[in-house]
Design brief:
One of its GO terms (molecular function) is isomerase activity. By secondary structure, this protein is of the alpha+beta class. The chain has nine helices and six strands; from the N terminus they run E-H-E-H-H-H-H-H-H-H-E-E-E-E-H. Helices cover 43% and strands 13% of the residues. Helix 6 (139-149) runs antiparallel to helix 7 (154-163).
């Protein structure tokens, strides 16, 4: 599957975490994370299980993010999880973020402040794109979104982005994503080694990708409670 170095391996998920590999513009990841957070809150596990975000940067596999593919997937997945807050892109075409590498770098930088700030920033960036049609690949927008979380130290994040020191974290994630240890976006792992790719959803395409339509054959959120319990050991 890959020519990535065999010495690069996915780190084990830490106790009390669910490790999530995903792309910020992946609608399947948006659904999985929404369902996971809803279940965590319902079970009262917000302080016992954290999400550890890692980048599965689709643009480094496929090139710039194509808006038609994102739009068509958002329509299909919005039908099964409207509470996730999907909206079609209605801002100007030239504002569409065809790259989110800097946003991935920002989440990695926020992780240096803790899993909580990183999780808050990741969630806020996804909402900024899917719900508010904001250009989350741009430095100014990223910092604005970070400030809105109330938990991210924006000064520290600004310095980290301007130094570029967390770009290596994104590229390390990419090297691991190119191996067969991570299947795609989203892929979730628990401390016992359990891994599930695109949990709870089976889908097929009618017509060509990006110009056809994704049809969800089955979907459920039963997997969320299982992974949360595994995260607690």
């Amino acid at each position: 599957m890959t020519d990535a170095p065999s010495t690069v391996h996915r780190p084990a998920a830490a106790a009390g975490t669910i490790q999530v590999w995903s792309d910020l513009l992946c609608p399947f990841a948006h659904v999985a994370l929404h369902r996971l957070r809803v279940a965590r809150e319902r079970l009262g596990l917000q302080d016992r299980v954290r999400i550890d975000h890692h980048a599965f940067p689709l643009e480094l596999f496929n090139g710039p993010h194509p808006r038609p593919g994102t739009d068509s997937e958002a329509v299909g997945l919005g039908a099964i999880e409207p509470a996730a807050g999907f909206r079609l892109w209605t801002a100007a075409d030239w504002l569409y973020p065809n790259t989110v590498l800097l946003a991935n770098e920002a989440v990695a930088a926020a992780k240096a402040q803790g899993l909580g700030p990183a999780e808050d920033l990741d969630r806020a960036l996804r909402r900024a794109f899917w719900v508010d049609n904001r250009t989350i690949g741009h430095r100014t927008v990223i910092l604005e979104v970070a400030a809105e979380t109330g938990t991210v130290d924006v000064g520290a994040l600004t310095e980290a982005l301007d130094s570029g020191r967390h770009r290596a974290d994104v590229m390390t994630d990419y090297a691991i994503a190119r191996t067969d240890e991570v299947t795609g976006s989203p892929h979730l792992f628990t401390p016992d080694g359990t891994g599930v790719h695109n949990p709870g959803i089976t889908v097929h395409w009618e017509g060509p990708w990006a110009s056809g339509f994704p049809v969800v054959d089955e979907h459920d959120s039963d997997w969320t409670e299982t992974l949360l319990k595994k995260a607690m050991g």
